[in-house]
Amino acid sequence: MALLGKRPIYSVIEYTGSQNVFIWRHPDTNFNTKSQLVVREPQEAFFYNNGIAEGPLRAGRYTLDTQNIPFLRGLIGLATGGNTPFQCEVYYINKTVSMGISWGTETSIEVIDPVYGILCGLRSYGDYSLRVAEGKKLLLKLAGHVHSYTQSDITTYFSDQTTMIIRESIAKAVKDENECVIEINTRLSSISKRIKDMLSPIFAEYGLELMHFAVSNIAVDGVQDLLGQIKHLKIKELQHSVEMRMRKEQGLMENELLWDRGRVEAAINDAKDITEVERIVGEIGLSLSKHPGVTGFGIPFSATGGGGLLNQNTIQVDSPAAKTEDIVGKLLDSAAQRRQEASQKDQALNEAEMKRNKCYEELKVLKKALDDGLITNEIYKERSSRVLDKLAEV
Q: Taking the CB of residue 140, how many other CB atoms lie within 10 A of it?
């Protein structure tokens, strides 16, 4: 460093400080055309005078004369050659990716849980990474204000905008996903991407590129109280659901009973017809024994005038060779078949009734176990649902 009067003339200009600095201005402005400018990777250097920035000068070593740096002639009016002193600001831009910049919401983000309608408070935190994409744009936006811009300065400068967008994005995500806030952490990737897409244009206006943005966690204020409220609402919802299903099943059962009653009445009528068949058999046998060889007569199955099988068919006897035992056999077979059908219907009805009663008993046992605290709400919901499904199949 040389001296011009009482002012130092820097022979070597360089920056060797922290990598957390985005912009650094050399502390002095007195140089000459023999001064050396050193730029290291991944730095850029700019000359700034009267609101005009020239550069960038990338990694290398430069002598500050107009032959090596032609724009100095126009920027500060240097003549070619000689050892001329001049005044100018020199800025260094650090293009290293600045990683792990932390952020967090200082106050709660109030949202309404879309599933249960409960007012909740959310807090969130994470980190992001920046790098200087356009050094000149950043310099023109911020130069002249301070000696340097560190990572902390940049965070503070953009804090109002980033906080607003983060809060709005998280609140909107809760609403759009339409899920309980307890499950919001399953959407961290999509929320992070949404916020990054919204913040990127803001940083780009200053020549900065948002390389990475992450929401690490979204915490619910008073989560235990919230879980208690949700549990209470779920129990009420489940009880209502079970009650409605039981009412539905009860309605189906009553309809089945009415239907079964009709079937029973029909079976009674059929039984009356079967009894009548047995009476007719005797009469036919007596008639044929008195009139052997009779031809062309029919035996009507309508003796009782009821609504069963007997008023729907007629046995026609056209052959003189028809034997009494053949006709009687047909009638008896028909009666036996009807008895068998009636017995099968009764058996099916009894089995269905037994299955329904068993399901009702299981539901009562499960409900009592839940009320006594012997099983959890989840177990009650799962097992009662199985029982109701079996009841629906009966």
A: 17
